Amino acid sequence: xxxxxIAATVLLALLVAGGLFAGWLLVKxxxxxxxxxxxxxxxxxxxKKIVVRAPAGSQTAFVGGSGPVLVLLxxxxxxxxxxxxxxxxxxxxxxxxxxxxxxxGDSAPSVGPIPFSDVLGGLEAVISDQAAGGRVTLVxxxxxxxxxxxxxxxxxxxxxxxxxxxxxxLVGSGGGPNLLPKTREEARETMARLRDAGSPAIPDRVLDxxxxxxxxxxxxxxxxxxxxxxxxxxxxxxLRAFEVPVRLVWGVSDGLMPxxxxxxxxxxxPDVALIPVERCGHVPQQEAAERFLSALEKxxxxxxxxxxxxxxxxxPKGHPI
Length: 321
What we know:
This protein has 321 residues and is of the alpha/beta class. The chain has a single domain (31-301), classed as 3-Layer(aba) Sandwich (Rossmann fold), CATH 3.40.50.1820. The protein has twelve helices and eight strands. An eight-stranded mixed β-sheet has the order 1-2-4-3-5-6-7-8, sandwiched between helices. Helix 3 links the parallel strand 3 and strand 4. Helix 1 packs across helix 2 and helix 6 (184-194) crosses helix 7 (204-214). The N and C termini lie far apart (43 Å).
C-alpha cells in the first residue's frame, strides 16, 4: 500500500471508531451527551464560559447578551445548559449570567459533599464578579430558586427581583418522589412525578443513566450535607418581611414542589404574583420551553429596566475559557 492508502485506511478506521464511540455514548451516557449539547448551545447563543474564584474553588458561568443583568440558576443535579432553550431570546434584552452552581457542571467542589454554604458562596462570588455595584434579577429553578431567595434575603440591596420557578426556601410537605432511584422502575416513577402526564415518556436508556449516576450525583452530594441545611431555610415570618419583589412561575404538574407549595409562599410574601404554567412539571424551561418563556416574560415585564453604566453595569471579568 502507498503512504496515501495507509493514511486513508487509518483515517477511515478512526472515523468508524469515532462513530462507534459516539453511538455508545448516546446509548450508555445520554445525560452527558445532552449536557454537552446544551452547553454548546449556550456558546452558539453568544455566551462565553468564564471562571470565577470562590471560597469553595473555581466556579464556572456562561455570560453574554446586553441590557439589565439576569442571573439564571439551575436546579439540583442540573447545570447551566438547562437554560439553552430560552437563552437566545433572553440574551437579546438582558445580560445573562448563567452559573454552574457549586458542585455542578464544571464548578468546584468536584467530589464529596456539597455544603449549602458553598452553593450560596459560589453564587455570591459570581454575582460580585459579574455585577459589582449593580443590581440583578434572579431567576432560579428548584434549588436555584431556593438559593436566589436566600441571596435576596441576605443582600436585598443587590436584587431587583426574584423569579422562583418550582422552588423556594420553605420547608416542604414531604412525601415527594425518590430523587436517588436505584432501579429503572424507580427512576421511571420519579420522572413521572416530576413531569406532566402528557409529556413524552423518558427512554429506558436515559432512566438507566439516571440510576447509574444516582449514588454520586450532585443530589446525593447535597443530601450528604443536609445536616447544615437549616440556616438556609426561610420561615413564613421571614418571608413576610421579604424586601424584594417575587414572582412565582410554576409548572402545575410538579409532584415534587406542588402548586400548594407556591400558594404557601404567595400567602405571606408582601410583593408577589403567582404565574402557573399548565401541562408541565418541575423543570418547565426544559419540558415546555415556549410556555415557560411566555410566563417568564410576564414575570419580568413589569420590572423596571436597570440602566447600565461602566460603574454599575455588568463586568465581563472572570477568566475566559
